[in-house]
Design brief:
disordered C terminus; single chain; about 170 residues; 5 helices; alpha/beta; 7-stranded mixed sheet
Length: about 170
């Protein structure tokens, strides 16, 4: 993906992200408040450190999933403590679980977050090229499951030291 937007509640964090020059655009938004979210449709989203106790809860799933195109891919890290409520909210929205595994988020630490990859159902027609791209994205986590993943490096690679709350790929 080459066209990536960043969304965060903190203008200071977005200033850090802007200096990295890896985002097409950044926007201050509260993921729990749909009225502040971008008015766009995305093919994918990546989030780490957002869905946890006392931060963004499962009530945000409805509006966040609504930002995606049919067939869109979600790659989210969700705290174990809130996972059951997120799992139910994702299922209600028709998100298909591709992979969900409990993993540590710190080197040598306990398993405490669910590394979730999901895909929205194809409720409207998509082009063959678009569908094959989504299928490749959805298949990727299965290939990666056979080898250890340093999720900290993966979620930080595009943004530097601290990734914004939500990274999304805009069509």
């Amino acid at each position: 993906f080459t066209d990536v937007d960043g969304v965060d509640l903190s203008p200071e964090m977005l200033a850090v992200a802007d200096r990295k020059r890896c985002y097409a655009s950044t926007a201050v938004a509260d993921l729990a408040d749909p009225s502040t979210l971008p008015v766009r449709r995305y093919r994918s989203s990546v989030s780490a450190g957002t869905f946890t106790t006392g931060h963004v809860g499962p009530g945000a799933v409805e509006s966040l999933v609504g930002l995606h195109e049919p067939g869109g891919v979600l790659a989210w890290v969700i705290a174990e403590a809130v996972w059951p409520a997120f799992e139910r909210a994702l299922e209600r929205r028709g998100v298909i679980t591709v992979s969900a595994s409990l993993e540590p988020i710190r080197a040598g630490g306990p398993a405490e977050s669910v590394m979730f990859v999901g895909r929205l159902g194809q409720s409207s027609p998509c082009s063959t090229a678009y569908r094959s791209q989504i299928d490749r994205c959805a298949e990727m986590p299965w290939e990666l499951r056979s080898s250890p993943i340093d999720w900290r490096r993966y979620t930080r690679s595009a943004a530097g030291a601290r990734a914004p709350l939500l990274r999304v790929d805009r069509k």
